[in-house]
Amino acid sequence: MLILLLRRDRLWEVDSQPYVDRHAIEFYVLLPGMKEPSFALLKRAIKEIWEYYDERRAIDQLIQFVTMLDRTTTVSASNKQKVREALKMYTPYQEFISQNHDVQQYGQQQKMEGKIEGKVESILNILDIRFSNDMLIDLAKQALGSIHDIEVLGQLEREALQSPDEQDIHRRLGKYLTQNETESNMEGEEE
Length: 191
Known about the structure:
This protein is about 75% helix and about 0% strand. By secondary structure, the chain is mainly alpha-helical. The protein folds into two domains: about 1-100, no CATH class; about 105-190, no CATH class. The chain is elongated and about 60 Å long.
């Protein structure tokens, strides 16, 4: 019955209470993404995860739980903070997070990817507002898609704001298209 709910509904439309009532612990990592889970329900789920699994498995489950919590929009910012505070009660979880280089690196990578996506969106929005040219936006998407340097994107954002016309933006973006095509060709020759 519970699996059928997930198959037919979008996760954010699924009521989380039945999963906790039935102690469907294997689904608890998804609770933060479900329809408006309360702080009390999430706190109860954390406790049950900790009690049900051995320490290592519980930590793995809680990492997934927190990842879902960080990405969801179904939990308010204040409840997210309360859940993080509740997790501090579980010392082994906190020790694992603070000592695990891979988890810290993953978190830093996620933050950087978020910043890059934000800059790309900002540039595209600026170009759309200033020039409303679909071909220019498509060109920008191609050029920006492979730029992973936040400083370069910041410079392009400033240029998008200050550029006098579409031709100037086209020229600036063209540098990155040419560079990307050249790199692709060079990589293809090496193989």
